[in-house]
Design brief:
Layout: E1 28-30, E2 35-37, H1 41-48, E3 63-68, E4 73-80, E5 85-92, H2 94-100, H3 105-127, E6 136-142, H4 146-163, E7 167-171, H5 172-178, H6 180-183, E8 190-195, E9 200-207, E10 210-216, H7 222-232, H8 246-254, H9 279-296, H10 307-335, E11 344-349, H11 356-368, E12 371-374, H12 378-381, H13 385-398, E13 419-420, H14 422-428
Parallel strand pairs: 3-6, 6-7, 8-11, 10-13, 11-12
Antiparallel strand pairs: 1-2, 3-4, 4-5, 8-9, 9-10
Helix pairs in contact: 3-4, 5-13, 7-8, 7-9, 7-10, 8-10, 9-10, 10-11
C-alpha cells in the first residue's frame, strides 16, 4: 500500500523550539494546496534572521534519528554509535484509548499526525544537533497498525528527501530484540522472547537481521488478552487502577489477590512446541467473571469482590504458559547446538516484559537451564524511538538495509520475523521437566 503524500506535513519553523534547518534544501508545505514548494533564498534568510540558532557540538561518528509510530505511541530519539541517547521524546495515547475501551486505528492515526512533528523536533532539539548532522533516519515500517505506520513513514520520507539522508526501514520486532545490545554487552547468538500487546514469539537471534522463529501466538497476544480481561473486570472504575493500562492494572491488582482461588490450567499443555495461545484463557476468564457476577448479584460493569483473585489467577496462568514455552525453546536450541550449553543468554522484551511476576517465572526457567536472563529497563520494553534509532545504528555498522532511494517504499502491517522453524521444534517433541513456580 502506497503511503507517500499521506497528509502529514513537515514544517521546521517554530518560535518556541530551537530551529533546525538546512538552507538551500528547505521545503515548506503549502497546506492549502497540499504540495511542497521551495522558498526563495531571500525569504529563507529573512525568516532565519528572526531566530537564534545555537548548534551543539560537532559529531564525527554515526548518529541516527529513530521514529516510531507502529501502534499508539509517537516516539523519536537520536542515538549515537556508542549507544548514548542524545535526545528523545514520546507522546503516549494511553489516556485517550482507555476512554474508548481500546485502540481505534483512525483515532491513533490522527493523534500521530497531530504530534509527530512536535515529537521529532523535541528529540532533535534535546540532542542539540540539526538534521544535516545525522548519518541516517530510521523508521518502523513493519509490522503494526497500517494507519499508524503510514504516518511515520510518510513523515520520514519527507525528512529524508528534504535533508538528503539515507533511510533505514526498521522491523519493529527486530528492534525490540536488539534493544538489549544497547544496554548490555550481548553477543550473538541469544534467545529472545518478545511479549507485548500485539505480539508473542520466541526466536533465536543469530545476527542483526538473522532470526530463526521457534514459535509464536496462534491467536491473540498476551498483552491484548490482559487488556481485555481488565476491561471485562471494569478495572478502569477501580480507584487504584483508573489511569493504568489494562496489563498494568492486572499486575497491580494481582498483588492483592489469591491465585489459588481459581484453578485454571495453562493453555496447550500437551502440545510439544513453542507456540502460544491466549484466546482460550480469555474465554475461561470471561466465564468465571459471568459466574461471579451472578453469584454476587451485580451487573456487568461493576467491580467484583473477587476481581483481585481473578487478576492473580490470570497473571499466574499466563506466566506459567510463557515460562513452559520458553523452557522448551531453550532445550531445543541447546539440543541443536544453536545456543551454548552453559551461560546462554535469554532476552525478554516488549511491553509485557515489564510485568515483574512474569519475569520472575522466567528467572526460574533461566536458573534451571543455566541461562542468564536479561531484560531492558521498563521504559525500553514498551515502544520507543530509542530502540528504532539503535536498530538503525546496528544496521549502519554492518551495511544492511540502508536505502538511498525511498521511491516505492511501503509499510507492511503484517510481517513475519526471520525464518520459521517452528515445525522442526514441534517434530523434536521435547518434553519439558516440571518446575515449581514459587513466585
Amino acid at each position: 500500500m502506497a503511503v507517500l503524500g499521506e497528509g502529514t506535513g513537515v514544517t521546521w519553523f517554530s518560535r518556541t523550539v530551537e530551529i533546525i534547518y538546512t538552507v538551500g534544501s528547505m521545503l515548506i508545505l503549502n497546506k492549502t494546496a497540499g504540495v511542497f514548494s521551495k522558498p526563495s533564498k531571500r525569504k529563507v534568510y529573512g525568516f532565519l534572521r528572526t531566530f537564534n540558532f545555537h548548534p551543539g557540538p560537532q559529531f564525527l561518528h554515526k548518529l541516527v534519528l529513530g521514529i516510531e509510530t507502529s501502534c499508539d505511541d509517537t516516539a523519536a530519539a537520536v542515538v549515537d554509535e556508542s549507544g548514548k541517547v542524545l535526545g528523545e521524546a514520546i507522546h503516549s495515547q494511553t489516556e485517550v484509548h482507555l476512554k474508548t475501551g481500546g485502540i481505534i486505528p483512525p483515532v491513533a492515526q490522527q493523534l500521530h499526525r497531530e504530534n509527530i512533528e512536535r515529537i521529532v523536533q523535541e528529540a532533535l532539539s534535546a540532542s542539540r544537533i540539526s538534521p544535516r548532522e545525522l548519518s541516517a533516519i530510521a523508521t518502523t515500517i513493519k509490522p503494526g497498525l497500517a494507519l499508524s505506520l503510514g504516518v511515520g513513514l510518510s513523515f520520514s520520507v519527507q525528512l529524508v528527501k528534504q535533508f538528503k539522508k539515507p533511510f533505514i526501514p526498521i522491523h519493529h520486532m527486530e528492534a525490540h530484540a536488539l534493544t538489549i545490545r544497547l544496554t548490555n554487552k550481548v553477543e550473538f547468538p541469544f534467545l529472545v522472547l518478545l511479549i507485548s500487546g500485539g505480539h508473542c514469539l520466541l526466536a533465536l537471534v543469530r545476527g542483526v537481521s538473522d532470526f530463526l522463529l521457534l514459535g509464536k501466538s496462534l491467536d491473540i497476544a498476551p498483552g491484548d488478552m490482559l487488556d481485555k480481561v481488565a476491561r471485562r473486570l471494569s478495572l478502569i472504575r477501580h480507584p487504584e487502577c483508573s489511569i493504568m493500562s489494562g496489563g498494568k492494572a492486572i499486575e497491580h491488582l494481582a498483588k492483592q489477590g489469591n491465585r489459588f482461588h481459581f484453578d485454571i490450567n495453562p493453555p496447550m499443555q500437551h502440545a510439544k512446541n513453542c507456540d502460544f495461545s491466549f484466546s482460550g484463557l480469555q474465554h475461561i476468564i470471561d466465564k468465571i467473571i459471568m459466574q461471579k457476577e451472578k453469584e454476587e448479584g451485580i451487573e456487568k460493569g461493576q467491580i467484583l469482590s473477587s476481581a483481585a483473585d481473578i487478576a492473580a489467577a490470570v497473571q499466574h496462568t499466563t506466566a506459567c504458559h510463557v515460562a513452559k514455552r520458553t523452557h522448551r525453546a531453550i532445550l531445543f536450541c541447546k539440543q541443536r547446538d544453536l545456543l551454548p550449553h552453559s551461560n546462554a543468554v535469554v532476552v525478554v522484551s516488549g511491553g509485557v516484559a515489564s510485568n515483574l511476576y512474569i519475569r520472575r517465572a522466567l528467572e526460574i526457567v533461566a536458573n534451571a537451564t543455566q541461562c542468564t536472563l536479561l531484560c531492558p529497563p521498563p521504559r525500553l520494553c514498551t515502544d520507543n524511538g530509542i530502540m528504532i534509532a539503535w536498530n538503525g545504528i546496528e544496521r549502519l555498522r554492518v551495511g544492511l538495509g540502508i536505502l538511498h532511494d525511498t521511491d516505492g517504499i511501503r509499510y507492511e502491517p503484517k510481517c513475519p520475523l526471520g525464518v520459521d522453524i517452528s515445525k522442526e521444534v514441534e517434530e523434536a517433541a521435547i518434553k519439558v521437566p516440571s518446575l515449581k513456580m514459587k513466585i
